[in-house]
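Please decode residue identities from the backbone states below.
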């Protein structure tokens, strides 16, 4: 006789406790999986941002090989409000920022130290490495016998490339500027590539230009790395928009952005007055607090300017660097006045230094 099987009513099942334990285990495993995926995603963004920065560094080196200098630092002009310094206008954040100067470089004032740490750009690299669209957009010049502005005929010929920016590095805005007020020298609207000194101070430069075409120095395969500046926030941080976020994307000045959507900052070693090919001994990139690493290996130390925590720790590699690039990393935050802060804002900064 075959043994009888237990009925469905008497077959043992999961108890409530066992079900709760099982669910807890599954939730824990899912949590670990999500954390792992999140970390993998962040690692991938770090790697892609470093790859982008390396490509930019290669482009900057090629630009110097062609011109004899690295791009000057562009930003919001000082010396009075101008059309070129208002957010949303074509020149916003693209005026020449002259290198900081010192009364006594061996004993700098706090204002002079602050000036060094604030001397960076988010617009220099696109302006000098890409070369794109109309002359109002990239300011390198256009062929004079062309149809009206913003029509296809007003585009540069050839349309892709950069007109040589000349000895002052800013298309004649410093050494051969248009006729304007003296405090406007170096402003975007004072660029004078056609060597024509005339023009209304409140109008944009309409001079034509012919001459050597350089670059482009970066193959923009990923359009997501290009952002547009619409202004600055209350803390002076750039407000960055992507192409899908504004109808004015093509008209706004550009910046390169990391894979967290924040602008990449460009720093330069100092040079003398309006000659970007010269060298100034007043300060170096070792004096820039935000570029300093969180830990410094023995034998690589350098004593730079003291930060707000009275910490002067820096590195010799920064002293020797001619330029540096900074991403604020996954937390999208940085602290420009202290190397190490309690909130850890500089811990994940990504810094790449040029030769």
């Amino acid at each position: 006789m075959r043994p009888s099987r237990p009925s469905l009513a008497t077959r043992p099942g999961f108890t409530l406790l066992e079900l709760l334990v099982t669910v807890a285990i599954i939730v824990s495993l899912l949590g670990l999986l999500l954390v792992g995926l999140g970390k993998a995603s962040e690692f991938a963004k770090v790697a892609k941002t470093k790859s982008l920065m390396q490509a930019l560094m290669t482009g900057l080196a090629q630009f110097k090989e062609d011109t004899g200098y690295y791009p000057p630092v562009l930003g919001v002009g000082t010396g009075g409000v101008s059309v070129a310094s208002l957010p949303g206008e074509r020149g916003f954040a693209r005026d020449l920022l002259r290198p900081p100067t010192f009364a006594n470089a061996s004993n700098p004032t706090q204002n002079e130290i602050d000036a060094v740490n604030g001397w960076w750009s988010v617009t220099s690299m696109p302006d000098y490495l890409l070369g794109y669209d109309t002359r109002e957009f990239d300011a390198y010049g256009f062929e004079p016998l062309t149809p009206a502005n913003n029509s296809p005929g007003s585009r540069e010929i050839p349309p892709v490339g950069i007109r040589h920016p000349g000895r002052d590095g800013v298309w004649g805005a410093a050494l051969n500027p248009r006729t304007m007020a003296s405090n406007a020298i170096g402003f975007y609207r004072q660029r004078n590539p056609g060597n024509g000194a005339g023009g209304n101070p409140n109008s944009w430069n309409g001079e034509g230009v012919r001459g050597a075409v350089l670059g482009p120095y970066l193959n923009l395969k990923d359009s997501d790395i290009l952002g547009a500046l619409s202004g600055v926030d209350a803390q002076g941080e750039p407000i960055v928009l992507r192409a899908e976020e504004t109808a004015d994307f093509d008209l706004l000045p550009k910046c390169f952005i990391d894979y967290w959507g924040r602008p990449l900052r460009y720093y330069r070693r100092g040079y003398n007055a309006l000659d970007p090919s010269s060298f100034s001994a007043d300060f170096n990139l070792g004096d820039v607090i935000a570029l300093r690493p969180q830990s410094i290996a023995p034998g690589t130390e350098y004593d730079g300017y003291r930060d707000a925590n009275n910490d002067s720790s820096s590195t010799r590699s920064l002293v020797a660097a001619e330029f540096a690039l900074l991403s604020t990393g996954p937390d999208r935050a940085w602290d420009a006045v202290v190397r190490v802060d309690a909130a850890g804002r500089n811990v994940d900064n990504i810094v790449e230094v040029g030769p």
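Observation: The mean pLDDT is 82.
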